[in-house]
Amino acid sequence: MLSQIIVYLSLLCQVVATGYAISLVKKTKFNVSWIMFSSGFSLVALYRVFELFPLTGPLADEKFYLAKIWLSLIISLVFTVGIFYTRKLFQFLNRLEKIRDETEKRVLSAVIRTEEQERQRFAKELHDGIGPLLSVAKMLLSGLDTLPADSVNEKLKLNLQQVVDEAIDSVREISTNISPHVLNDFGLKEAISSFIKKLRAAEGIDIHFRANIERRRFSYNVEVIMYRVICELINNTIRHAGASTIRMHLHWENDLLQLDYEDNGRGFELSRAIGEGGMGIRNMQYRLKSGNGDILFTGKPGQGMQARAYINAK
Fold it and tell me: What is the pLDDT of residues 263-276, one digit of tens each?
């Protein structure tokens, strides 16, 4: 009696385990190893049914005995195949882990490179912009009251004031490049328009910009990321493409902020640019992916460049 109860309990546990295993097949996306294990559980449950025959009926004849032997062999084969595919699954997970580690290293390298480039640019702007102005101011100060003519001193004072004003403007421009106040105060569209106006006057390039966001505000990260990407694209076009025209369309739809960008420059090979680390492509990708976005490039040498950048603006 006790042995019969134990077999029934074993069968019940096996049926429950089988049902749960089968219910997880879809969640595992029909993984072969899990299908094998589920099949093995089902066959083990069937084997338990065969074991009940000697307890609930007459002794099993030779056919039942052979059936149990074959069923045991099939169960062993199913679990063996399942373990084999599980081994392959772990190998795949190991490869995936290595890829993830390599990706993290590349991302970290991109972050470090971006920070270093920003430091170098900041140092260059201070050295080339503020340094000479302060040197001139110091020279003018040393010349004050050393010359007898008051008119000369007044002229030195006037020049000193102009130098100080220019230094203040330079500091303001550097501060704007680091953290654009227009972006913080008026939003993405106004910040981009302000950046374009400065470039038109300085670079003489024809930039066409249109947007449907008007004065709509997004989160700080979204606005900063898209602003930096646009600035990077324009600067790359000016420095590398030799283009005369840039066209940009920034539009917001279904919680997605998207930029369509193109220039009529010399173009480039995307694989070569990424391999050489040029044009800040990885830096732009890193920025956008941090906001669940990305940037895609098209174009060939001599045929200009097109890019589509997007970011989740929800």
Answer: 998 887 665 555 55
